[in-house]
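task queued by scheduler; priority normal; single chain, no ligands, no partner chains; default sampling; output format set to structure tokens
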Amino acid sequence: MTSPLTPYADAFVDDVARSLGELSGRDHTAECVIEARDIATALLGADGRFTTDELEGWLDAIGRRLEPPVLVGSTQLRSSELLRVDDGWLGRPS
């Protein structure tokens, strides 16, 4: 089953990468996947914890698109450093 996050992550990456590509003439997909990762991780971790469903959704929507792809289970993901929420960038104006 596909995560409810997947269509939104895909749309973000595809739309932003296309727009940036039109402006620069380069492919920006990899950078957009990293931005999607950061945004999704911050949103899912806003309450200070990650549920199993959130982790599985992150793996389906984001982990598969990263290079290299994140091919672990939700338990391994939870115990890793991959989902460290960097509150520093969240608190600064963009």
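post-processing summary
- Residues 41 and 81 are 12 Å apart (CA to CA).
- The mean pLDDT is 91.
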